[in-house]
Specification:
Helices cover 24% and strands 20% of the residues. By secondary structure, it is α+β, with helices and mostly antiparallel strands. The protein has one domain (2-125). The longest helix is centred in the first third of the chain and has 10 residues, at 17-26.
């Protein structure tokens, strides 16, 4: 079975800074290239709290550079570490008390992340269209 993490509530999967920091430690490849916090309008020496509230998807690396979780890429939503963390914390991994959940799909299903107009997420099976 494939395990995919979604946030069915509005606003999508916005992880808490603590979860982002643990994810970055375990899987830095799931994050963007580093950028100076000043490039995002943050002061030099910005705190974790400032980064969390200003960026939603950002974390500071060991060099004080800003890195962003590539939250809309399917491969990171299907990351076993993330699914395990969601289950371990009973879905309480999101900012502002939103809850994430793990959706289980058969291994042979090709899927994509669908984001509704309100930001709610669901998994849709890929299909073909001819015109």
């Amino acid at each position: 079975m494939q395990r995919v993490v979604i946030c069915p509530d509005t606003a999508g999967l916005v992880l808490t800074y603590e979860v982002l920091a643990r994810l970055f430690s375990a899987h830095p490849e799931a994050f963007s290239e580093p950028m100076p916090p000043a490039d995002f309008g943050l002061p030099e020496g910005a705190s974790a709290s400032q980064v969390e509230h200003a960026t939603l998807f950002g974390v500071l690396d060991g060099d004080g550079m800003l890195r962003f979780f590539e939250h809309n890429e399917a491969r990171w939503r299907a990351l076993a570490w993330l699914a395990d963390e969601v289950e371990r914390l009973d879905g309480k991994v999101c900012w502002r008390d939103k809850r994430a959940k793990v959706v289980e799909l058969p291994d042979d299903v090709k899927w994509y992340l669908y984001v509704g107009e309100d930001g709610s997420e669901s998994i849709h099976e890929q299909h073909r269209i001819w015109r």
